[in-house]
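Private note to self, pasted from the team thread so I don't lose it. C-alpha cells:
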C-alpha cells in the first residue's frame, strides 16, 4: 500500500521555525512506524533524526506523538492506525511529531534534561539505614505485587508529556517521577518513606495531579498511573492523622 508520512522537521541550527515534510512510501500493514522511519532515513532522507534503541518496547527510546497520541514507534503497526489494505493508496497521512512540552534538539529528538532532573528528585533507588542482612533483603509475594505494576515503567516520558498539568506548570514533577516515587515508597525493603513523602508533598508534587487520566491512556505498558498517584495522596493524608 502507499502511505504518506507527514513528519515534523526542525533543525535549530539551520531552520527559523519548524515545518512538516511529506514522504510517500510503499509499506505493509504489519510494518511498525519505526520500520518506516528507518526506511525514510536510509533510503529517502538521511537528515531525518529520531531516537530508537532496542526496537522491542523495552528501552522507551522512541516515544513520539503519532496521529496526535503519544506512543512508542516500535510498538505500533500501521494496521493499528487503520491502514489495513495492502492494495490501497491512502490519502490521509500518518503524522509523526516529537513528544510535546519538551525542548526540541532536532526533528523528533527532544531534550530529556528536565525529565531526568525530576526523576532524580524523588530518589529513585533503594535507601536503607539498618545493617544489611547476611543474604538478600526478602519480600513476600504480597509485597512484590504491591510494586510490580509500577516497576514496569520504562521511562519513555509518554505519560509525563501527555499531562495537561505538566504543560501548564514547568515545576510539576509529573506522572513518571511520581510513579517512581510510589515504587520505592511502597517497597517493603526501603527505609526512606517519610523522606520521599516530604519531596512529593508540595503544590508542584502529588497535589498537582488532577486525575485527568491522560497518563493512563498514553502509557505503552498500560500502567494505571493515576491509581498509583492516588495511593500516594492517601498515604500522605494518613500520615497527618
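Design output:
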Amino acid at each position: 500500500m502507499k502511505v504518506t508520512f507527514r513528519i515534523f522537521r526542525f533543525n535549530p541550527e539551520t531552520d527559523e521555525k519548524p515545518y512538516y515534510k511529506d514522504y510517500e512510501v510503499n509499506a505493509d500493514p504489519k510494518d511498525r512506524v519505526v520500520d518506516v522511519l528507518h526506511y525514510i532515513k536510509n533510503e529517502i532522507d538521511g537528515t531525518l533524526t529520531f531516537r530508537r534503541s532496542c526496537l522491542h518496547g523495552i528501552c522507551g527510546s522512541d516515544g513520539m506523538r503519532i496521529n496526535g497520541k503519544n506512543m512508542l514507534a516500535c510498538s505500533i503497526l500501521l494496521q493499528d492506525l487503520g491502514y489495513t489494505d495492502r492494495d490501497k493508496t491512502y490519502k490521509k497521512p500518518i503524522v509523526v511529531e516529537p513528544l510535546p512540552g519538551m525542548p526540541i534538539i532536532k526533528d523528533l529528538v527532544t531534550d530529556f534534561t528536565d525529565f531526568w532532573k525530576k526523576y532524580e528528585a524523588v530518589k529513585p533507588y533503594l535507601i536503607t539505614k539498618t545493617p544489611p542482612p547476611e543474604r538478600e533483603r526478602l519480600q513476600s509475594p504480597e509485597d512484590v505485587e504491591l510494586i510490580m505494576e509500577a516497576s514496569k515503567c520504562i521511562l519513555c516520558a509518554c505519560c509525563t508529556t501527555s499531562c495537561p498539568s505538566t504543560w501548564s506548570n514547568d515545576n510539576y514533577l509529573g506522572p513518571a517521577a511520581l510513579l517512581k516515587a510510589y515504587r520505592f515508597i511502597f517497597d517493603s525493603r526501603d527505609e526512606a518513606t517519610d523522606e520521599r513523602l516530604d519531596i512529593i508533598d508540595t503544590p508542584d508534587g502529588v497535589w498537582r495531579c488532577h486525575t485527568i487520566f491522560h497518563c493512563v491512556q498514553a502509557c505503552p505498558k498500560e500502567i494505571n498511573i493515576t491509581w498509583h498517584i492516588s495511593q500516594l495522596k492517601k498515604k500522605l493524608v494518613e500520615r497527618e492523622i
